[in-house]
TrEMBL record:
Location in or out of the cell: Cell inner membrane
Domain Tripartite ATP-independent periplasmic transporters DctQ component: 40-169
Protein name per Swiss-Prot or TrEMBL: TRAP transporter small permease protein
Keywords: Cell inner membrane, Cell membrane, Membrane, Transmembrane, Transmembrane helix, Transport
Quaternary data: The complex comprises the extracytoplasmic solute receptor protein and the two transmembrane proteins.
GO terms under cellular component: plasma membrane
This protein's record includes keyword Transmembrane helix: yes
Length: 185
């Protein structure tokens, strides 16, 4: 007998699957407060610009960097919390056993894609952190503030993609173990 009912959101699959996922969720929940900080500094900029006619040189770039960084981290958070975008047209119409095979395919393809992105982001991050002769020299924005935000964001993207690769490996191992347990029964 196969179960063709859609999964309820309270099923254990919606919970973090390993210690890495739990750490990502915990850290991401703390970092999410930076969205509020970004709103406050943006409000500060509006007041300074339009009330006191004294615009800042740092708010726009800083808010963009914080927001961009949080959205990059949001990708691994969504995967850790199993809240990533999923096309469920086929997934919900098949048996639980078939879903397990679909999950393995998803994780293998996702792992390959994450590896390629991590590889590509390494060269981009490396170029933004080091001069052609190998000296540490962070790429800056070129604005009045001239902050190293571009280099920091590119470095963060590389780190997050490496974490995503590890997540895919851990999830794939868990899926294979889960599949083998049912095959043994």
């Amino acid at each position: 007998m196969t179960d063709h009912t859609p999964r309820a959101s309270s099923e254990p699959e919606e919970q973090p699957r390993n210690i890495l996922d739990r750490a990502i969720i915990k850290i991401s929940n703390l970092l999410s407060w930076l969205f509020i900080a970004t709103a406050f500094i943006s409000f500060y900029e509006v007041v300074m610009r339009y009330v006191f006619d004294a615009p800042t040189t740092w708010v726009h770039e800083t808010a963009s960097f914080i927001g961009g960084s949080l959205f990059v981290i949001g990708g691994i958070y969504a995967f850790a919390a199993n809240k990533h975008v999923r096309v469920v047209l086929i997934y919900d119409a098949v048996s639980n056993q078939t879903r397990k095979y679909l999950n393995i395919i998803h994780h293998v393809v996702g792992l390959a894609f994450a590896c390629m992105l991590a590889y590509a982001s390494y060269s981009v991050a490396h170029e933004s952190w080091f001069s052609p002769w190998g000296e540490l020299r962070l790429e800056t924005s070129g604005s009045v503030l001239n902050a190293p935000y571009p280099a920091l964001l590119k470095g963060l993207i590389f780190v997050v993609l490496c974490i995503l690769v590890i997540q895919f490996v851990l999830h794939l191992i868990q899926e294979i173990i889960g599949l083998r347990k049912n095959d043994d029964v």
